[in-house]
Design goal:
This protein is α/β, with parallel strands linked by helices. It folds into two domains: about 15-130, Response regulator (Rossmann fold, 3-Layer(aba) Sandwich), CATH 3.40.50.2300; about 130-185, Orthogonal Bundle (Arc Repressor Mutant, subunit A), CATH 1.10.10. It contains seven helices and five strands, in the order E-H-E-E-E-H-E-H-H-H-H-H. Helix 4 (about 140-155) packs across helix 5. InterPro entries: CheY-like_superfamily.
Length: about 200
């Protein structure tokens, strides 16, 4: 599957969460060249930081208490800066589902890290949306059964014909089968006419 990658970040914002003033300064300067307005922090993120387009964090010393969200729930792409390559710290970064890794020795590659982080984050959001839609539709499967039974009773048809009518109604309304069933069961007069 091909995916359109963002090649410019002009106007984007970033938070650099790192214990070293030098690293924060070097990264904010590099990001400025890319058109990214960055702020450097340590200790703790602020609630307003949720609005940033990127988070770039110190994998060696960062910890969950620094974030105003639950573990692995960052509302933006996260780039993890790797210094020591400690297995425990890398495991922590993976548990937090960071979107890209960038060695401290390769800060000049921040552009690539941003591109990868954005694409990875977008893919996670798409998957989360698909999973939520699947769960929503699964929770309404009983509505489909109820609608088919009601159509069978009201129209005097068998289940195959009733299901075909419900599918045709869903296509006309351009909604899922589950949503068509809910419409029909809602006693909506327009839905009733559409099923006849």
């Amino acid at each position: 599957m091909s995916r359109h990658l963002t090649h410019h970040f002009s106007g984007a914002t970033a938070v650099v969460l790192h214990h070293s003033d030098d690293v924060r300064d070097r990264l904010t300067a590099r990001l400025k060249v890319l058109g990214v307005h960055a702020v450097g922090r340590w200790e703790k993120l602020e609630e307003a930081d949720r609005e940033a387009d990127f988070l770039i964090l110190d994998t060696d010393l960062a910890h969950d208490d620094q974030f105003p969200w639950q573990r692995a729930q960052a509302p933006m792409p996260v780039v993890a800066l790797i210094g020591s390559e400690s297995p425990g710290r890398l495991a922590w970064a993976l548990e937090n589902r960071v979107d890209a890794f960038l060695p401290l020795a390769a800060l000049g590659n921040i552009y690539s890290a941003l591109v990868i982080a954005r694409a990875t984050f977008d893919a996670k959001v798409e998957q989360r949306d698909r999973d939520a839609e699947t769960a929503r539709r699964s929770s309404r499967r009983l509505d489909v059964i109820r609608a088919v039974l009601k159509l069978m009773q009201e129209s005097g048809v068998d289940e195959a014909v009733a299901l075909k009518q419900l599918r045709a109604f869903a296509m006309v309304e351009r909604v899922s089968l589950e949503d068509a069933a809910a419409l029909y069961l809602s006693e909506n007069p327009a839905a009733r006419r559409g099923m006849q």
